[in-house]
Design goal:
Rossmann fold, 43% helix, globular, 397 residues, five-stranded mixed beta sheet, 2 domains, 12 strands, alpha/beta
């Protein structure tokens, strides 16, 4: 096993950081601590993973399992993680269960608001909030290099935030060439490095840290990210543009987890009305708040359990902060006030980039997705995870 597993063993017995109040913002803006024992927890996490066992909190599911010394296997989670086609762990509408029956995920869906309706005002407020969140994390971590993980429009807009600490841009094929062209066309001079998914040397560690939360075929580039963090002495903050595509273009209208409940209602109404009810009902949904309420629920039961859990996975793998510009405290306040029906009727990501840059920009014409990780696909990760937990001295029941 790697030195990362050794670090996990070291964390098993502590230290436990005691404090009066632990907030989600503190847990996700500072390198301090892995396991916390607060007198009170403050916040309602809707994206970043925060787990609780008794009085203890952590962003690391593995650390809590090893600290208590027992994996109390959740049969429902185990069955889901073993199913063909498994992508991410999400049980029911509450989505709080984990692979351990005694450890729960803290939080729930973001409460939607419907105040900001004008697209230009939404872009302005979101851009200002992103700047505020970046400044806050840089101030808490002044000696750290910012590594911007860039691919499509969601993350390319990170390049125009007002960074104070050193910046490295990292990208992987097939987007790497497009990111380089984007930087050249828009006069950006950051160091750009290519990361690849060719190394399976940390797979056993990845299985352990992942704790059956995601299909690891979606979790690419781990060893290269570790090497990148090590190249700057571990003093690094990884930045991502997670779920920007679901927020900043009309995709939010169809973003869901599971069957499309609105479409089912449309079809039912059409049957009751002799085939004439679908179009009027669709217009009703567009004019109501139902689509946005459905969207924020899916952000919790899908986005938080997939991309959100992945931020925790990379954080534990690299032992560095991993944050998204669209999910900081200030950005959350804006997201909690926007009425997407009016503010996002088209792709507003170019508007956001041009607001941040204060000038016109040239974006790539295509936005390809990286392939799934061939070296991590098809694995039976549950038995390997259970075996690894046992080897670290924890019992399984």
């Amino acid at each position: 096993m790697s030195h990362l597993v050794s670090a996990a063993i070291d964390r098993r017995g502590g230290p436990v950081n005691e404090c009066a109040v632990l907030s989600e913002a503190l847990l996700w803006s500072s390198h301090e601590g892995t396991i916390w024992k607060p007198q009170r927890f403050e916040g309602q996490p809707h994206f970043y993973p925060v787990y609780r066992w008794g009085e203890l909190y952590s962003y690391s599911l593995l650390s809590l399992i090893l600290h208590k010394g027992t994996l109390h296997l959740n049969p429902r989670a185990a069955q889901q993680a073993s199913a063909p086609g498994f992508v991410y762990q999400s049980l029911g509408q509450k989505g709080r269960e984990t692979i351990d029956r005694e450890i729960m995920r803290v939080g729930g869906p973001l409460t939607p608001g419907f105040e900001i309706r004008e697209p230009r005002e939404f872009v302005r407020q979101l851009g200002d909030a992103m700047r505020e969140d970046v400044a806050a994390i840089e101030a808490r971590n002044p000696a750290c290099t910012n590594v911007l993980l860039c691919g499509g429009r969601d993350s390319l807009n990170l390049l125009f935030l007002p960074w104070n600490n050193p910046v490295i841009v990292a990208s992987a094929p097939p987007n790497y060439t497009l990111v380089r062209e984007f930087m050249d066309r828009n006069g950006l001079r950051f160091d750009l490095v290519q990361i690849d998914d060719l190394d399976a040397s940390l797979l056993e560690t990845e299985i352990l840290i992942n704790a059956c939360r995601n299909n690891l075929a979606h979790c690419r580039w781990g060893p290269d990210l570790v090497r990148l963090a090590d190249s700057v002495g571990g003093k690094v903050v990884f930045w991502k543009g997670q779920l920007g595509d679901s927020l900043l273009q009309p995709k939010w209208r169809i973003y869901s987890n599971g069957p499309d409940r609105l479409r089912q209602l449309q079809q039912r109404a059409a049957g009751l009305l002799g085939g004439h009810g679908e179009i009027p009902l669709d217009r009703f949904f567009d004019r109501s708040t139902l689509r946005q309420r459905r969207y924020v629920r899916a952000q919790w039961t899908r986005g938080a359990m997939w991309q959100g859990a992945h931020t925790g996975f990379v954080r534990e793998l690299t032992r560095a902060l991993v944050v998204s510009v669209y999910h900081g405290p200030a950005a959350r306040r804006v997201r909690g006030r926007v009425d997407l029906r009016y503010a996002v009727t088209e792709d507003v990501r170019p508007r956001l980039g041009e607001y941040l840059a204060a000038r016109p920009l040239i974006y790539p014409a295509s936005n390809p997705s990286p392939p799934l990780s061939a070296i991590r696909s098809g694995g039976a990760y549950l038995p390997r995870f259970v075996d690894a937990v046992r080897r670290l001295g924890a019992s399984v029941r």
